[in-house]
Amino acid sequence: MSQAAEKFFQHNSALPTMPEVASRLIRSFDDDNISLATLADLIGKDASLSAKVLRLANSARYSPSHQISTLQDAAAALGMETLRNLSLAACMAGAFPKVKGLDRGVFWRHGITTAAYARVLAKMVKLDAETAYLAGLMLRTGQILMALAESDKVAEVETLAVEPGSRFSLEQHRFDCTHADVTASLARHWHFPAAMVEAFADANTPMEVRPFSLMAAVLHMAEVLADAAQNKDNPTHALQVAVPELIEHLHLDLAFLAAKLEAAGDVASDVEQLLG
Q1: What backbone phi and psi angles, to 5 degrees, belong to 198?
Q2: 34-72 in b/e burial notation, b at 16+ Cβ within 10 A?
Q3: Which site in 29, 95, 103, 175 is 20 to 30 Å from 159, CA atoms measured?
């Protein structure tokens, strides 16, 4: 574990608390028999989250033929995957404060885009897609803790991080660790599985880590793709420029990936409604 990353946890007040609803949503990934009704009941335990989900279900994107007034109807309109994943994103976002140096809306839109792309990549390399989604959603959360301590440096990094994937090296130069390292520390404090903690720590330079970690590679590539999408760049071209060795190592079909990314990215626009 990076000692440089641990300095951001020296004050206990800096450690966010995992929301109970988020924790239960994460556990639901392992329940193949969970129903929409059960998820709706779980979300109903959080009044703020319930209101956001209802607002999303009534948005133009889901074009309801009638006004949706119950969580059960909202669940049916959104579907299992969208309901759970966007609710988890809202819960996680709510666990972290607004900080100077990071635009909250831009930050969490990037996070949910990273999560969506991580799921696509995980399926391509035969990893668990839901674990990859959660890891992708969390990948940059360490940067919030960095901004709480050194907001000016984080803001500088964001200004300079023009090239997709460059945030890792820019942070390493300034902090002697990256957001992924700090996220690894946070995941350890939150008692996440050791494999996920290691994947975060290895996401900085996945080709240099032995044994090779597929999840770390997926996370690194997902952030590159999300950076490109945020900059309106061609995502797969950005991937070719940033990490050609990973593409070759994993034998990725970029044409297939491009088609999948387009569909996965559409849902990211919903995050603003859940952050309001």
Answers
A1: -65, -40
A2: bebeebbebbeebeebbebbbebbbeeeeeeeeebeebe
A3: 95
Q: Which pair of tokens denotes residue 2?
A: 């990076």
Q: What integer best gives the mean pLDDT of the chain?
A: 88
Tokens of 76: 């049916």
161 contacts 227 by C-beta, under 8 angstroms: yes
- Please determine, for residue 90, whether its predicted confidence score (pLDDT) is greater than 70: yes
Residue by residue, DSSP assigns 6-17 as HGGGSSGGGSPP
**CA separation for the pair 201, 181 (Å, rounded):** 5
Q: Is the peptide bond before 164 cis (omega within 30 degrees of 0)?
A: no
Query: Which alpha helices (DSSP H) does 68-213 contain, by range?
Result: 71-78, 80-95, 104-124, 129-138, 141-149, 151-160, 167-175, 179-189, 194-202
d(CA 255, CA 237): 11
pLDDT of residue 272: 58
In the chain, what is the straight-line distance between the N-terminal and C-terminal CA atoms, in Å? 35
Q: For residue 181, give both structure tokens.
A: 């390292």
Q: Name the DSSP letter for residue 205.
A: S
The reported pTM is 0.86
Q: Give the three-class secondary structure for 65.
A: coil
Residues 82, 47 contacting (CB under 8 angstroms): no
